[in-house]
Write a structure and sequence with these properties.
Length: 433
């Protein structure tokens, strides 16, 4: 990678890691919210706090995370990536400050809305920047994915560790600070955003400076969604639904399994260490194994992201998509029976799931670059993450509702079906090629 490639990759790695740090810390807080709050008081109506209602609140924030990607993609084609990434970081930091000050579930919902709106612009901005500015695109996507997974894993891990010595509001306030500092760095970074592409037309589509009008937006959207990109869009929607459906309530699902009983902290650490941490003997503080299993599953996804990025340079992405989603379907079918076999078999399946969940992401990111013109790359990634995080956000509400009215077996059967739809889309793409 040359100096420009490295400068861009450093910025997007930092921003991507923070986006997913905040995203995946939320399920750790969900477990606390389910026990701390009883009602959601909207003034004109009140609702009990259940997995279904909390799932709706989380889906609201996650949904905006996806829905904002499309307008974010349009804007990035007009003003470039740096300013959007800087604004994204400022907004995310502010949202977690608000979360730390939240007295009730209504303010929690507002904080998640602010986070979703702020974070939504990152993926079209960051991925457009890689696709147009980094000459070693596959390697850039691999490192970008690794950073995202470090955030995905370290976010809940850091949150879980901080929760040992502080209450959840304080933890949220602490987590908000790094994004504010990163925004300062983003505003000062220097690089050429379009070093890897030339201003040219591609396939009759605009490929110069983005969308100028509503008519142009409709024309370019039609151009994208009537071609092979439509199948890529199906793939990314399936990815988002599976991703959010399996992860939103995973700590809650694990909590009741054998081997995940809470462990008193005082049985693990000597009294001198407990005293240094401010933990009193007999205070009843416990480690929650499900939080660390969840964080470990996400961290191991680093290997999936790196492998997926490298594979995108070495094999047809269509075959990679079909094969990786077939693996996800098989893992969904196996999850419930394996979870009853004990912690060891479940740890193995969890590691495989962590890799498989994330190997698909660089593959579909690369497929977007393969099937779209450079001049509207931001719009293309905007549609992509509208599918991944907008439509995909429904996976959280879907999972919460299935768990409230059915069981885990029904949830994982549904997820397997979603993965098989993506397998079919990948096969059709491969046949077209």
């Amino acid at each position: 990678m040359n100096a420009n490639d490295r400068a861009i990759t450093a910025l997007v790695m930092l921003a991507h890691g923070l986006v997913h740090t905040y995203e995946m810390a939320v399920p750790i807080f969900v477990v606390i919210w389910l026990t701390e709050f009883d009602l959601i008081n909207l003034g004109v109506a009140q609702f009990d706090v259940t997995t279904a209602t909390v799932g709706v609140i989380v889906t609201l924030g996650y949904g905006l995370f996806g829905a904002g990607a499309l307008p974010g993609g349009i804007v990035v084609d007009r003003i470039g990536s740096r300013r959007l990434i800087t604004g994204c970081l400022l907004g995310m930091g502010g949202s977690y400050i608000l979360l730390g000050l939240a007295p009730n579930m209504v303010v929690i919902a507002l904080a998640l809305v602010l986070w979703g709106l702020s974070a939504s612009v990152y993926h079209p901005a960051g991925l457009s920047l890689i696709s147009k500015g980094v000459k070693q695109r596959g390697t850039g996507l691999a490192y970008h994915g690794v950073a995202g997974n470090l955030g995905i894993g370290l976010g809940p891990l850091v949150a879980a560790i901080l929760l040992l010595v502080a209450e959840w509001r304080t933890v949220a306030l602490i987590l908000g600070v790094p994004a504010l500092l990163a925004a300062v760095y983003a505003s000062q970074a220097s690089f050429d955003e379009t070093a890897a592409v030339a201003a040219a037309t591609d396939g009759g589509s605009k490929a110069s400076s983005g969308i100028d009008s509503l008519g142009e937006f409709l024309t370019e959207s039609k151009h994208l969604l009537t071609g092979s990109f439509l199948l890529v869009f199906v793939v990314v929607m399936c990815s988002g639904l599976y991703y959010r459906g399996v992860l939103t309530f995973l700590p809650e699902l694990l909590r009741d399994l054998p081997g995940f009983e809470p462990i008193p902290i005082e049985t693990l650490l000597p009294s001198s260490v407990l005293s240094a941490l401010g933990i009193e003997a007999g205070a009843g503080q416990t480690l929650k194994p499900q939080d660390y299993f969840y964080a470990g599953l996400l961290l191991i996804g680093v290997f999936g992201q790196y492998a997926g990025g490298k594979l995108s340079d070495r094999i047809p992405v269509e075959y990679g998509i079909a094969g990786s989603f077939l693996g996800l379907a098989i893992l969904a079918v196996l999850f419930v029976p394996v979870s009853g076999m004990g912690l060891g078999p479940l740890a193995v399946l969890g590691a495989l799931l962590g890799v498989a969940l994330f190997v698909v992401q660089p593959l579909y990111q690369a497929s977007v670059a393969e099937y779209t013109p450079a001049g509207t790359r931001g719009l293309s990634y905007g549609f992509t993450y509208l599918g991944v995080f907008g439509v995909g956000a429904l996976g959280g509400g879907l999972a919460g509702s299935i768990l409230a009215f059915a069981n885990a077996t029904a949830l994982f059967a549904t997820l397997a079906g979603i993965a098989l739809v993506a397998v079919l889309a990948g096969i059709v793409l491969a046949r077209r090629v």
